Amino acid sequence: xxxxxxxxxxRTLNPTSDQDAPVIVFENVSLAFDDKVILRSISFTLREGxxxxxxxxxxxxxxxxxxxxxxxxxxxGGAIWVNGERVDHMGERxxxxxxxxxxxxxxxxxxxxxxxxxxxxGYKLYEETDLPLEEVHRRVEQVLGFIGLAEHIDxxxxxxxxxxxxxVAIARAMAFKPRIILYDEPTTGLDPITAATVDDEIIxxxxxESVTSMVVTHHLRDAFYIATRAAARRNGRIxxxxxxxxxxxxxxxxxLRDGLVVFEGNAEExxxxxxxxxxxxxS
Amino acid sequence: MLSLVNKWLKSAALEVQEYVRLLGALAQASVSRPFYYxxxxxxxxxxxxxxxxxxxxxxxxxxxxxxxxxxxTLDQFGARPVVGRVVSATMVKELGPxxxxxxxxxxxxxxxxxxxxxxxxxxxxxxLRALGTDPVRKLVLPRVVAGxxxxxxxxxxxxxxxxxGGGVVAVTxxxxxxxxxxxxxxxxxxxxxxxxxxIKPFVLGFVIVSIxxxxxxxxxxxxxxxxxxxxxxxxxxxxxxLSVDFFLTRFLLSVxx
Lengths: 283, 257
Description:
- The complex is a heterodimer.
- Chain A is an alpha/beta fold.
- Chain A has twelve helices and twelve strands.
- Chain A has a single domain, classed as Rossmann fold, CATH 3.40.50.
- In chain A, helix 6 crosses helix 7 and helix 7 packs parallel to helix 8.
- The radius of gyration of chain A is 18 Å and the shape is globular.
- Chain B is mostly helical.
- Chain B has one domain.
- In chain B, helix 7 runs antiparallel to helix 8.
- The model of chain B has no long low-confidence stretch (mean pLDDT 93).
- The interface between A and B is medium-sized, with 22 and 14 residues.
């Protein structure tokens, strides 16, 4: 019950909860560590229900953007809004409240080694809410059932394969029903078939649970797959199929290079981009 | 050369600043809710029960060797029967607290630094923060409070076992009767000694665990960084134990005796 209350609370706090309203806004955000510039005046907007896919080479500043959204790092300049609240100068205590509406899937999963899959997935509900235990168990089982890992509920993370660990991390991010989920290189290090199962979970969450997504990746195959596929329930089963043109338009790409946005647009526009760097990246 | 010194000074100042910041966050966490009781109980077991064997062995052999060495010296003055007095005073006031603390620095300080360090490099600390948990409250506070509780208890055990070890040597090697040894032990102990023997491990327990946590949370640079943090934690905690012990002894001697 507390998780539902928590979710409702974040929704009512949010002054921009209408469809297509901006949920994450970056305005001229800059960040540098000593002499190394990571981001140079980055601006973009992510709207409710949409997907933002951030592409770029290693060290381009992709993962930094997610850490800034969560408030784990602070920018040197510019403004960041998450669910209608400005987070770039917010204290840790207030950030905890904002993070209640955000789920994050870290690179390699970042599962807690000492906890079982059940405890990992239900971590926030067990530790940070007053929800009755039976209800948390039920929610954890429901979430693990959704991603197809119900039989692994009592295993330790070390007993899972790389793909399973990544999917458990997705389950942990969605367990408390956040409005937005951030994915940091969710398929890195996975074979193409396992990577597709992770991509399917991202698509299912977006289309069936109305979760707004921000995906950081350097895998073009996964990026285009997420942008151009859609999930639907057919006769009680979940099917992943080609997305309509309107649906595909809702997924926006951002290409970063040396801390700058060098491209912003949909999958079709990216495919036909003429910039030499983009062509090299796409080839 | 000058730039190297400059760099070293800067990094030392940064470490001190971050340690003080951690202590500030710890103080704030200790006076507000929530307190993670389950983690606290778990740490009591890891720090206390887990360190029992090493503390028992250290205490016993320290007391035994102390009796052996002082027995030879006391013989020169015909004072062999007061060996118990030397063992009890030395164990309770100095060797018990310091050697227990050094053992804890090696076992607990390194373990904490390695555990928290690997959580940092695998993004688990960031994951905790993303899930709305304050890492200081969840990871540091239960460990520090458990250290405060368990260090004095382990020291009392080490003192007792040390005196037993001294007793075994006194009876079997020095031919001092058990009743004489026991009377000598009690004669050599004062209430102030007992207080000193309890206050010291309380402070040293805090120093060891807080340094272990600080070094672990500052780890970086992958698995190599975790290894480095583990070594640093043991070295820093051991040096801190010996230096804090000196200043604390001076302070306690001036206020209690």
